[in-house]
Every structure is written in C-alpha cells, then in structure tokens.
Amino acid sequence: MARLGIIQMRSHVSNDAGIKSASKILRSLGRDETDIVCLPEQWLKNNRIDDFGTEFAEFKKIAREFGMTIIPGAFYHKNKGRLGISAPVIGPTGEIIGTQEKIHPFDYEKDMITPGKTAHVFKTSCKFGILICYDMVFSDVAEHVVKKGAQVLFSPSRIVRRGVASWHMYVQVRALENRVPILAANVHHGRFGGKSIIVDLVENDGVMIPKVATLSGQGSKSGTFDLARYERSRRTRYADHRRFV
Fold first, then answer.
1. What is the pLDDT of residue 41?
2. What does the pLDDT read at residue 219?
3. Contact, 74 vs 102, CB < 8 A?
4. What is the pLDDT of residues 65-121, one digit of tens each?
5. What architecture does CATH give domain 2-240?
6. CA 186 to CA 38: how far, in whole Å?
7. Most buried by CB count within 10 Å: which residue of 15, 20, 165, 169?
8. 206-236 pLDDT per residue, tens
9. CA distance linking residue 120 with residue 135, whole number of Å
10. Predicted confidence (pLDDT) at residue 122 exceeds the cutoff of 90
C-alpha cells in the first residue's frame, strides 16, 4: 500500500512566497503519512532553476522530516551546458535522488530546450515514473516506463484552460492502457486551468473502469493505493498485444 498525492498551485509574487505556500501543504500531507507528492510544471514565478538543492531546501527538509518523496514540479534547468526541462526527485532522506527530463518539448519549447532521451524509473516507497506534461500525449512513453517496472505514474503539468478536457482524456487512457494509477498536477492561475487529476482503476465484472478525482483551486488531494492489485491485469493486457505491420 502507498499513500500518494498531488498539489495544485496558483502563481505567487515570488519563488520564496510560492515555496512557503507549498511547504504548508506539504507538511499537511506529511502529517497524513503521504509517501509521494507531485507538484505541477513551472508553477513558480521564476521557472528557471539553476540549483534544485538550494531552491528547494525547505522541501528537502520536509521530505526528511516526514520520510516523504517530493517531486517539486518541472522547470527549466541547465545540465552539462544544455537547457532542458527537468523534474527533480527529493527522496525520503531529504536528498535529490535523480531527475527526469522532458522528452517531448511543446510548441515554443522546441526552440529553447534539448529534449530528454531517457525515461527513468525511481524507487522509494514504490516504483514510479514521471511524464512531464506533453509526454502524456505519446502512448509509448507511459508504456515504456511501466514495462521498465513503474507501478504508478506522476505528471507535473501546465495545461491551459481550453486543453484540460483533452488532457483528462489522455491521462485516463494512459491509465487504462497500462493498468496503472496516474496522478497529474496542474497550475491553477490565469490561463492555466487547474483541475489536477488522479486516476485510479476499478474492475467491474471484468471491465476496468477509471475512477477520477479532480481538484479546484490551490490545494491537495491524496489517496491510498494497493499497487499490487493492478499487476495481474497489466500482465494480461500486455500479453494480449499482437505485433502487426
């Protein structure tokens, strides 16, 4: 069993103010014994982060205090001389245990960043993967990560209001295709439409049905997941797939 959550953030006047606000929510989730929490993509005032360890020092402290894994979101970040969009992962000891780069830049991002080339699986309280926003559109990313061992997917996102309905469809379909729960966090401010989404799956007489929960406004949502109960259905689904030309 794993308790997993997401935080939906609005914009704040400064990074310090945003991190202070998010920290209060993280502490509340920590007191509820949440194991892993994900925040949205680019929810801060300044979304180019040179040093994740320094910027998210308070998050590291909270992670260590509660034994919680925190995905602070996804941000512009220079690594080995090239600019990308990366999601750091703060492990339950308070140290950054890795990063996931955005594999599919969206629209104007194509002229700004270098795409990531590897989809990682992280392991703390469970095995999980991270799909950053537009990566959710491409079915092979989710499938690849789950076949590498991920039991759940998190998605830091920044979706405009007119795109939320389509985004919700992508998230639900990826969950159904791969038989995994997905927790996707969005920004709720201005042109970004919020409605962060958690998709669980419930079997009804042999048919898998998505069970959906969404957020409104700044806040959080979490739930307890028995990740082992998806494994049999996942194995069957993958085994049923046939290659064709």
1. 98
2. 97
3. yes
4. 999 999 999 999 998 889 999 999 999 999 999 999 999 999 999 999 999 999 999
5. 4-Layer Sandwich (3.60)
6. 10
7. 15
8. 899 999 999 999 999 999 999 999 999 999 9
9. 13
10. yes
| Region of 149 on the Ramachandran plot (φ > 0 left; ψ -120 to 50 alpha; else beta) | left
pTM passes above 0.85: yes
Cβ partners under 8 Å of residue 152, min gap 6: 2, 4, 36, 126, 127, 128, 129, 180, 181, 182, 183, 225, 227
Displacement of CA 70 from its chain's centroid (Å): 10
Run of H or E including 223: strand 219-225
CA 123 to chain centroid, in Å, comes to 14
Closest CA to 91 of 56, 135, 136: 56
What stretches of the chain show up as alpha helix (H) in DSSP?
15-31, 52-55, 57-66, 139-147, 164-178, 231-240
Q: Is the distance from CB of 69 to CB of 36 less than 8 angstroms? A: yes
Contact criterion met (CB below 8 Å) for 152 and 6: no
Q: How far is it, in rounded angstroms, from Cα 44 to Cα 113?
A: 18
- Count CA atoms closer than 13 A to 150's CA, side-chain side: 24
One-letter amino acid for residue 4 of the chain:
L
Q: Is the pLDDT of residue 17 over 90?
A: yes
Map out the domains of the chain as residue ranges.
2-240
Which two three-digit tokens encode residue 166? Answer: 């389509």
Residue that the structure tokens 């020092």 belong to: 57
Among 8, 67, 12, 64, smallest CA distance to 34 is for: 67
Q: How far is CA 217 from CA 10, 26, 94, 193, 210, in A?
A: 8, 16, 28, 9, 23
